[in-house]
Structure formats: structure tokens, C-alpha cells
Design a protein that fits this description.
The protein has about 110 residues and is of the alpha+beta class. The chain has one domain (about 5-105): Alpha-Beta Plaits (2-Layer Sandwich), CATH 3.30.70. Helix content is about 30%, strand content about 40%. It contains three helices and four strands; from the N terminus they run βαββαβα. Strands 2-3-1-4 form a four-stranded antiparallel sheet. The chain starts with a strand and ends in a 6-residue tail after the last helix. The relative contact order is 0.30.
């Protein structure tokens, strides 16, 4: 397989927001799949203060060729001033699954 697969991670303020944005990204074929993990505890520094809170974490699977469009769309939909959008390359996996990711990303018809 020549197409590279990415795992993208992003946190959201709640499951409803995560679900709404994930549905849109999958519907527009910017991601093949979104796994929503509710209620993760986050501790971070923001504007010189230590903050903490419950967030919802989402794992998105997408093809590398759509990375820029995915990031741009997620950024435009995300409610945070500076959202977490991290990409991790997938170096290996079940070939059929990786092929499915590629098939389900791209231009929506």
C-alpha cells in the first residue's frame, strides 16, 4: 500500500460536541472513522495557569493525502481557541483495514 495512514487525536469539551464534529468529518470523507472516548481527565497549562477538566478524546483514522483538509475543517469546527490536533503516522496494521481507511477518505460524492 502506497497511501500512508494517520491517526489524528483531538480533545473536545463534551461528548455531544465530539459526536457532532466527528459525524461531519466522516460524512465529508475527511476521516474514515472516529472513536469517541468520553471522560478523559486533562491537566494542562493555559495562559500561565494550571487547568484541569474532563474532556472527550477522539481518535480519527484518515489517509495522509487528506491531512491538510482534515486539519483545516476540524480547526474551523472546533470550539477551542487552540484545539489539540495531533497526527501520528500508522507504520503498520491489518492491510485490509488500512485499505478500508483509504477507500473511505477522499472527496465525498
Amino acid at each position: 500500500m502506497t497511501e500512508k495512514i494517520l491517526l489524528a487525536l483531538s480533545t473536545f469539551p463534551d461528548a455531544e460536541t465530539a459526536r457532532k464534529i466527528s459525524n461531519q468529518l466522516v460524512a465529508e470523507k475527511l476521516a474514515a472513522c472516529a472513536n469517541i472516548l468520553p471522560s478523559v481527565e486533562s491537566i494542562y497549562r493555559w495562559k500561565e495557569k494550571i487547568e484541569s477538566g474532563n474532556e472527550t478524546l477522539v481518535f480519527f483514522k484518515l489517509s495522509q493525502h487528506g491531512q491538510s483538509a482534515f486539519q483545516e475543517k476540524l480547526r474551523s469546527l472546533h470550539p477551542y481557541e487552540v484545539p489539540e490536533i495531533i497526527f501520528v503516522p500508522v507504520s503498520n496494521g491489518l492491510p485490509e483495514y488500512l485499505g478500508w481507511v483509504v477507500e473511505n477518505c477522499g472527496q465525498a460524492h
